[in-house]
C-alpha cells in the first residue's frame, strides 16, 4: 500500500457511533477495517484509478461501511444517519465511471449487495420485482433460466447492480429495441432521506401528475435509496439475426442508420464505428476495402419478423452505398461484449477515459468532426475513437474513447481535464446533451447548470426540501457540497 494511503488509513478514527450502527444490522455487517475503507474509497471513475495508481486517495476514505440485509434495516440505517447528521452514499457494485460512489466528505457507505433477491415474477403481466442490490449478471442469468430477459445488457452487466442501473439512468447494448432502464422500470420502492418508504406501484402507464418514479431514476442516490424495482420482462427471442455492413463514408453509415430507425424497424443492436474503431474490427480483403466504415446490427424476435426487418434494413443500407459482409465482426463483438478494456491500458500507465453524449442526427456529423479536430489540436498523441451504439429515430448516443499516453501525472491530468472540457463544451454548443447513460456523479457536476438551465434550480430546491441536512450523496450531480468536501472534478479552471 502506498505511503499516502497508509497515512490516510492511520489517520482514520473509528466513528464513535459504530457500535450503535452494528446493533441495527449485526456486527458482521459494519466495518471500518483498513481494507474496506480502501476498497470503498473509489469506483470506476478513471481519475480515481489514476489517483490510486499514483498512490493518492481520490476523495476521502469513507467513515465506515454498512451492509443492511433488509429494507427495514436500511430504513433504520437512514433514520440513524439522519438523527446523527451522518452523510451517506448508497453503493451498488461501484462500477459507476463518474465518481458517484466515491466518498468526498467521509460519507458512510451503504453497500446494498445483501439486497440481492428476485422477489417475484409475474408471468401474466410479464414483470419481475427484484431487490436493488442484485448483481446484473446473476439477475439476467436467473431470468434466462426461466425463459425471460429484461433486455437490459450493459457492458458492465456482471459488475453492476439493478439499483445502480436505475440510479444512473443506464443503457444496455440492446437499448434500441428494449429502451433504456427508465423505459423498463414500471414501479419501485425507495427510502427517502427522512426514512419514509416511497412506493410507486407497477401499473401500466398513469396520468397522476409528474412522474414521482422518475425522481428516483437518474438521481444517483441524491434523493433516496432505491430498494426494489419492478421491471418489464420479455420472453427470450426465437432468433437473433446479425447484419454486418460496410459503408463508403461515415455520413453514408449515419444516413443509413437514421433511415432504418425512421422506417419503423426495430433492431435490437445498432453500432456504427468511425474510421479508427472500424479499422480495429475489420480485416483487409473483403467488403471493408471499399467500404471501411463498419456497422453491426442485430434483429431479434419471431423469426419471420426478424428476417423481414433484416431484409428491409439491408435494402436501406444498399441504397446508401453499403454492402453486407460476413458475420465475423458481429461474433467478435458478441464474444467480448461484457469485457472492460480500460484496466488493460490504465495498468500500463495510459490515461484512458470514455465519454458518452447524446445528440440529434442533424447535429452528429459536425459535432463528431469538431470534437475530433479539437482533441487532435490539444495533443497529437491523444487517441480518439468513436462509435454510435444507442440509436433512436431522432438521434443517437456518441460514445468516445479518449486515451492519453504515459507521461508525468501533472501534464497528463491537465490534458485529460482539457479533453473533458472540450467534449462537454462542444456538446452543449451543438445542442446535444452531456451524458447518455453514464450519468453525472462528481466528475460532470460542474456542467449540470449549463445542461439544465432553470431546471437545475428546481433540482437543487427539491434536494434541499427532501434532504435539508444534505446527507444523501452530497455534492454530486453538481448539487451543493458539504463544507470541507474534496472537489472531485477535472483539475484546473476548465469551465
Ligand atoms: C467497463 C464498464 C462498462 C460500462 N458499461 C455501461 C453500459 O453499457 N451502460 C451503462 O449504462 N453504464 C455502463 N457503465 C457504467 C456503470 O456500470 C453503470 O452506471 C451502472 O449502472 C452502475 O451500477 P452500480 O451498481 O455499479 O452503481 P455504483 O457505481 O455502485 O453507484 C453509482 C451511483 O448510483 C448510486 N446508487 C447505486 N445504487 C443505488 C440505489 N439502489 N439507490 C440509489 N442510488 C444508488 C450511487 O450512490 C452512485 O451515486 C460501465 C462501467 C464500466 C466500468
Task: Describe the protein's architecture and organization.
The protein is α+β, with helices and mostly antiparallel strands and 495 residues long. The protein folds into four domains: 3-111, Uridine Diphospho-n-acetylenolpyruvylglucosamine Reductase, domain 2 (2-Layer Sandwich); 118-235, 2-Layer Sandwich (Uridine Diphospho-n-acetylenolpyruvylglucosamine Reductase, domain 3); 239-336, Alpha-Beta Plaits (2-Layer Sandwich), CATH 3.30.70; 342-429, GMP Synthetase, Chain A, domain 3 (2-Layer Sandwich), CATH 3.30.300. It is built from 19 helices and 18 strands. The strands form four sheets. The chain has a seven-stranded antiparallel β-sheet with strand order 15-12-14-13-17-18-16, sandwiched between helices. It has a five-stranded antiparallel β-sheet with strand order 5-6-10-8-9. The two termini are 34 Å apart. The model has no long low-confidence stretch (mean pLDDT 96). The structure holds flavin-adenine dinucleotide. Flavin-adenine dinucleotide binds next to strand 3, helix 7 and strand 10.
Which parts are unreliable, with pLDDT below 50 for 5 consecutive residues or more?
A: none
Average pLDDT taken over every residue: 96
The CATH class assignment of the largest domain is: Alpha Beta
Number of strands: 18
Helix content: 25-40%
Number of structural units classed as domains: 4
Main features:
495 residues; alpha+beta; globular; Uridine Diphospho-n-acetylenolpyruvylglucosamine Reductase, domain 3; binds flavin-adenine dinucleotide; Alpha-Beta Plaits; 7-stranded antiparallel sheet
